[in-house]
# Entry
Amino acid sequence: MLPITIMMILLVMAGVIAAVKDSATAKKLAIAAHIPAFALSAAMLVISAGEPIRLAIGAEPWNVYVFVTPLASFMVSLFIGVSLLIMWASMALVNYDVDQARIPMYYSLVCVLIASLCGVVIFGNFFNVFILMEVSSFAAAGIIIIKNRPENMRAGIKYLTLSILGSSFILMGIITLYFLTGSLSVTGIHESLVAGYAGQEVALVAGYTGYEVAAYNALIFITIGIALKSGLFPMHIAFPDAYAIAPSTSSAVLSSLVQKAYIFFYIMVLHKAFGIEVIMNDPVMSTTLFLVMAVGAAAMIAGSAMALLQTDLKRMIAYSSVAQVGYFFLGVGMGTRLGLFAVIFHFLTHAVTKAMLFLVAGSVIQQTDNRTIDKMGGIGAQMRVTMALFTVGALSMIGIPLLIGFNSKWFFAMGIFESQHLWLLGVLALSSLLNGCYYLPVVVRAFFGKEAAEAKQLGQSLELSVRGLVPIICLAFLVVAFAVIGGPIYYINMGIESIW
Amino acid sequence: MSFWLLIPILLPIAAGAALPLVVGDNRDRLQVYVASVVILNTGFAVAAAGLGDTGFRALELTSVINLHIRIDDLARFFLVLSSGLWLLVTFYSFGYIKRDGRDKSFFAFFLMSYGAVMGACLSGNFFTLYLFYELITLLAYPMVVHSGTPEAMKAGVKYLMYSFFGAALALVAFVFVANYGFTTDFTPGGVLDPVALAGNEGFLPFVFLLAFIGFGCKAYIWPLFDWVPASYPLAPHPAAALFSGVVSKIAVLAIVRTTFYVFGVDVVIGSWAQTALIVITLLTVFMGSMLAYKEKLFSKRLAYSSVSQLSYVLFGIILLNPLAFLGAMLHVVFHGIIKTALFLSAGAVTHKTGKSYVYELRGIGKAMPVAMWCFTMASVALVGIPPTGGFVSKWHIATGGIASNHPTLGMVGAAVLLVSALLTAGYLVTIFADAFFPGAGFSYKKLVNAESGKLMTVPLVILASLTLLLGMFPGALIEFINGISAIIGI
# Structure
C-alpha cells in the first residue's frame, strides 16, 4: 500500500490546498504534503531494494497493478525530493509570477502533477500509466497557463496539444500491445510477447499472422509518443516556449522532473515489456533503437546550438534542456547496461542541476526585473550568492570534476565505448564545449569586466531572501555531494540488475 | 603521513577564498596576508617534496573517479619549480598590481591558482590531474581578465574555450585508457593491458595524439596556441609570467605523465603519432620564432617566444630518448626561470613608463638599468649562449634527437633549433642592444632614473642569477632528471 499512500497524500493535500483561500496557508500546506511523502518514498527506497513491490487490485487486464522496482522508488524519491526543494524556494519566488488569488490553485496543481508523475513510474499496468500520463499533461499545462497572460495561454495550449498528440501515439501503441498479447500489465505483456516471438501465436484477433509487424508498430508508436511528450528534438517546439514563459518554479518542475517520468516509462517498455534481448536481436526493433540514439545525439548538438542563439536567460536554459533530453535518448538507445546506467544517473544530475539553474534564473528575473542576458552585466556584484550558485550549475553542465555533471558525462562515455559507436564520443565532447559556450558568458559577464566594476560601485545587494536561497543552496550541495558519494551509483546499479 | 600532501593544495585555496573576509579594505594587511600564505605554502611544498614516495586515495567512487594524491620524483621536480617561481612572482606582484580595489580579487585568485597548480603536481591518477587542470583554467581566468577591458574579456573567452577544448580532447583519450588499461593511476612504463587491447591497437596512436595535443593546448602546441598571443598582452605581466613560467609547465607535466606513465614508451615509439608529433612540434618551434621575430608588441613577442620554446620541450619529450628527455626537463627549468624573468622585466618597463612597443624602448636601459640587465641576462640564456642554462638544455635536446629512433627528423630538428636560436637572438638582442645603446639621436638630458622598487627588482635579480648559476652548475639537476628517466625506462 505504501506507493499508493504516497500518491494519495499528495492528491488529498492537492484537494485541501485547492479549497484554501489564503495563499500563505497554501504554501505551507504544499510543503506539508511533500515532507511525509518524501519520508515515505525514502522508506520505499529501502523496502523495494530487496524485492519489487507488487500489488494487484482486481483481475487482469483491467486492474490496478502496482509494480515498484528499486528504480521506480528511486524515481519517486527523486521527484518528491526535488519538488520539495523547488516548493520551498517557491515560497520566495512564486508571488512574482502568479496572482495572489491563484496561488492555492497553483500549489494544488503542482501536487497533482507530482502525484501523477509518481503514478507513472509506480504502476505496472499500462492503462493505469496512460491515465496518469494524461493527468500529468493537464497539470503541467495548468502550471504554465496559471500566469494569466495571453502568451502563457498560447504556450500552455501548444504544450498540451503536443503532449496529447504524444499520448495518442502511446495509446495506439498500448492498444496494439493489448490486442497482441491480451494483457496490459508490463509483466503479462512480456510473457506473451516472448511466447509469441517463440512462434506460438497468442494474438487475440483470430487468424492474425502479422505478429512481428504489430509488435514493431507498437514499439514505434510508443517511441514517437514518448519523443513528443518529452520534447526530443525536432519535436521540441513547444518546450522552450513553455519553460521560458511559465513561472520560474514551474519551469524548474517541468524541465527537471516531468519528462523523466515519460522516459522512465519508455525504459520500462523497452526493458520490461519487450525485453531488451528481444529488441536487440530483432533487426527492425534494434534499428529503431539505433535511430533513437542517433536522434538523441542530434538533439544534444542542436539543442545546444539553439541555446547559443538565445538572448533570454530562461529560454537559453530551456534549450539547454532540449539538449539534455538528447542525452537521455542517446543512453536509452544504446540498449546496453552502461547506457541505461548513464541515463538513470543523468536523471539525478539533470534534476538537481536544472532545478537549480531555473530557480537561480527565476530569482535573477524577479530581483532585477530583467530577463535579457545582455543586460545582466555585473549582476554578480549585486547577487553574489545567487550567481555563485549559477556558476556551480554552469560548471556542472560543462563537466568539471567533483561536480555531478562530470560523473554523468563519464558514465555516458563509458556507455558509448561499450556500444562501440565511438563517433558519439565526439558528440559528447562537442556538446560539453557548447554548454561552455553559452553558460560561461553569463558567468563571466556577471562577475568580470567593466560592468561588474561599475555595479560594485553601486554596492546595493539584490540578493533573494534567505528563505529563498537556502533550498537553492541545498540543490548546489547535492550537485557536489552526489558527485563524491557512492550511494546513488550503488543503488542504480542494483535497480538495473533488477529489471535487466 | 601522506595526508600532509593535502596541505600545500588546500592551504592556498582556502586562504584565497577567505581573503576578502580576512583583509577587508586594508591594503597593507593584504600584502602581509598573501606573502605569509605563499611563503608558508612554499615551505610546505618543499617539505612535501622531502617526504618519501607516498600517497593516498580519497572520495573513491569508481576505479577511475577517485582522488589520488601522491608524490614521486616527477612530482617533486615540478612541485619545487612551481612553488619557487610562484614565491618570486608574488613579491613582484605587490609592486606591480595597482591598489585600485580589484587587487583583492586578483590576489584571491592568485592564491587559489597556486593551490590548483600544487594539486596538478601531486596528482596520482588521470581524474585528479584533470580536476586540477580544469581548476587552473578556471581559477587563473580572473587574472587573465584583470584589466576588465572589452578586449581583455574577449581574450579571456578565447582562453577559456581553447583550454576546455584541449581538456576535452584529453578526456576523450582517457575514455580509451580507462577501457583498455589496468588502471588510470600513473604507473612508470604505462598502464595499457595488452589482452584488452588485442585487435584494437590501431586506435592507440590516434588516442595518444589526442591526449598529447589536448594537454598540449596549455603548452602552446600548434594548432591550439592562438589564445596565447591574444590573452598574454592583455593580462597583467605577473599573470603572463605565471602562465608562461608555471602553468605551461603543468601542461608539460601532464604530457610526461600521459606519455611515460600511461601509454608507455613501447606503445608510442615508432608509431605514426610519434612522427606526426615530431613534425608538429618542430613546426611550432619555427612558427613561434618567426611570429615573435615579426611582432612589435613587447609582451606579444614574448608570448610567441614562449610558443616556440615550449615546443622545444615537447619535441624533447616525444623523441623518447634519455638525452632528449634530459634536455627537455632541463629546458622546463630554464625556460620557467628565463621566461618569468623576461615577462617580469618587460612588466617593469611597461608598468613604469607605459611603453609597450619594442621600438619605444630605445635608451630604456639607461633609465632602468637593473630591469634591463636582468632582461639581457635572461635573453642571452634563452638564445642559448654558453655558459647559461639555455645552452645546456638545447644541446641535450639536439644530440638526443640525432640519437633517437628518428635520426633524420632529429637532424632536421637540430637545424630547426639552430634557426630558431638565431631568430631568438634576432628578436631579443635588438631590444637590449637598443636599450643600452640608443644611438646618436638620444637625448640624455631628459633621462630620469625610472627603476622600479625593491619588491620588483629583487625577484628579477634572483631569477637572472639563477639562469646563470644553474647553467654553470647543472650537475645535481641532471642527476635528478636521469633518475626519473631510469624510473620510466627510456
Summary: Residues 201-208 of chain A have pLDDT under 50 and may be disordered. Residues 150-181 of chain A form the longest helix (32 residues). The first strand of chain A starts at residue 53 and ends at 57.
